[in-house]
Amino acid sequence: MGKKLEGNGIWESSRMILPEHREAYVRLMKEQGRRGKPTLDDQEIQQIEQAIIVSYNERKPITLRVFNPFDDEELRGLVTVINTSRREVKLSRGEEDFSWIKLEEIIEADI
């Protein structure tokens, strides 16, 4: 009985599980892998903002690490617009390839 509950045995041993139930179970397992956003101190926030300003003023490429609940994203490009009212930056990776990134989602910035 123990081997039926290991690996894929949970699905293979019982043909009575509906596909909707299996999908819901898989989604639940994925949601349990979610993690919380790290809190940054004032010095780290200031360093991130300074790197963004340098990239914007001097047209230097910047690498931003953006928070994601499952796996952080690392984006590289030029800061072309800083929108202070919406607290966002526009990161351009080419002529037509760009992203708007919220400042509170950025957890690390390197020039």
Could you walk me through the main structural features you see in this protein, from its secondary elements to its overall organization?
With 111 residues, this protein is α+β, with helices and mostly antiparallel strands. The chain has a domain at 37-110: SH3 type barrels. Helix content is 32%, strand content 28%. The protein contains three helices and five strands; from the N terminus they run αααβββββ. The protein has a five-stranded antiparallel sheet with strand order 4-3-2-1-5, covered by helices on one side. β2 and β3 form a beta hairpin. It is elongated. The chain starts with 8 loop residues before the first helix and ends with a strand.
Write the layout of secondary structure elements.
Elements: H1 9-12, H2 19-32, H3 42-58, E1 62-66, E2 73-83, E3 88-92, E4 98-102, E5 106-110
Antiparallel strand pairs: 1-2, 1-5, 2-3, 3-4
InterPro entries: YolD (IPR014962)
Pfam families: YolD
> Count the helices. How many?
3
Query: What is the typical, i.e. mean, pLDDT?
Result: 86
Determine the N-to-C terminus distance.
Answer: 56 Å
| Name of the CATH architecture of the domain at 37-110 | Roll
Main β-sheet: number of strands, strand sense, barrel status? 5 strands, antiparallel
CATH topology tier name of the domain at 37-110: SH3 type barrels
Poorly predicted parts: none
Spell the H/E element sequence.
HHHEEEEE
Helix fraction bin: 25-40%
Given this structure, which CATH class of the domain at 37-110 is correct?
A: Mainly Beta
The coarse overall form would be elongated
Class of secondary structure makeup: alpha+beta
Strand content: 25-35%
- Total strands: the figure is 5
Radius of gyration: 21 Å
**Strand order in the largest sheet:** 4-3-2-1-5
